[in-house]
């Protein structure tokens, strides 16, 4: 998504005032922001940053719309197209949730409706401000307050197309740490869904994509898969939860960031915090295939040992070291 042009349909920024262990209050904008080049750069940067961040949670809306009003608010907005009212209602709800979390901090709340070739979504981000240094027109140094976009900690996104189509994973949010992320999850009304089997399958898919992109030799590819299998098998046995940064550093220590970038790419939709399902890691060590007239499964290492030979010119597989039981059965046919 980071390379997909964004079309901003609506954009507004409000402010949430909140100090840790203090009350929350809001300062509301009275009009939407004009979509100029500065606004476009801001939204593009935040969307790109959000897309490349790992540690996101995924899910769908909670069913209790009285306790979790987000779906009702979004539905009403889509019906009446009043983005200003919608954004102000979101801020009132965010204020309530922030009041419930003592450690929550305030900041500028950006709310946008964005469309691109990949999705149509509502994006909400809480961005803090920092003091930098600038040189004014008189060549004097002075303080300059600006948005601290590179340290985005609180943000979420609602994929309107998937939601309206009845999908299961259309809400996402940055997990962050502790209760701070939890209050924003409650604000979004997200029922966080992590299915270990599906997440492990996506992790295996990401590893396969990585070794293909890196154009690794057969031996190097096998070593990556073996390290991954050993690590994930141990984590599954010990009920250890996946952290993508840690996993990448252990599986591919020579360039862990390259692997992490693949695993956390939003097209893969992989999340942290799940215990690997050991059933799903078998493809790392074994090939399994089927055709109308046969089924076949063998270790990847057998291609290196010569026990299985694939001849691409004749499109045939040759199996060696046939066990006696199988030989006897074949001879009886």
From TrEMBL:
Subcellular location: Cytoplasm
Top-level taxon: Bacteria
Keyword terms of this UniProt record: Cytoplasm
Primary residence: cytoplasm
Family: Belongs to the YejK family.
Protein name: Nucleoid-associated protein
């Amino acid at each position: 998504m980071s390379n997909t042009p964004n079309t901003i349909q609506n954009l507004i920024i409000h402010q949430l005032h909140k100090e840790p262990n203090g009350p929350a209050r809001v300062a509301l904008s009275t009009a939407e922001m004009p979509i100029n080049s500065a606004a476009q750069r801001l939204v593009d940067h935040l969307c790109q940053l959000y897309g490349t961040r790992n540690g996101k949670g995924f899910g769908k809306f909670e069913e209790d719309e009285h306790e979790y009003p987000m779906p009702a608010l979004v539905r009403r907005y889509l019906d009446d197209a009043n983005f200003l009212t919608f954004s102000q209602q979101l801020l009132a709800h965010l204020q309530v949730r922030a009041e419930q979390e003592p450690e929550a901090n305030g900041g500028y709340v950006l709310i946008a409706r964005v469309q691109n070739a990949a999705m149509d979504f509502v994006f909400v981000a809480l961005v803090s401000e920092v003091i930098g240094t600038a040189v004014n027109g008189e060549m004097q140094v002075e303080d300059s307050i600006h948005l601290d976009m590179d340290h985005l900690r609180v943000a979420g996104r609602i994929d309107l197309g998937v939601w309206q189509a009845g999908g299961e994973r259309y809400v996402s949010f940055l997990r962050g740490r502790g209760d701070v992320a939890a209050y924003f999850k409650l604000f979004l009304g997200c029922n966080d869904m992590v299915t270990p089997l599906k997440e492990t399958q996506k992790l295996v898919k990401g590893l396969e994509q990585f070794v293909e992109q890196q154009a690794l030799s057969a031996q190097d590819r096998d070593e990556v898969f073996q390290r991954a299998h050993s690590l994930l098998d141990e984590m599954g046995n010990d009920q250890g939860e996946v952290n993508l940064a840690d996993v990448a550093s252990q599986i591919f220590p020579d360039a862990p960031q390259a692997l992490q970038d693949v695993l956390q790419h939003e097209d893969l939709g992989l999340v942290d915090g799940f215990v690997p399902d050991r059933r799903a890691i078998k493809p790392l060590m074994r090939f399994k295939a089927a055709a109308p007239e046969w089924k076949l499964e063998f270790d990847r290492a057998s291609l290196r040992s010569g026990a299985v030979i694939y001849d691409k010119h004749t499109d045939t597989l040759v199996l060696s070291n046939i066990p006696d039981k199988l030989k006897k059965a074949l001879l009886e046919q």
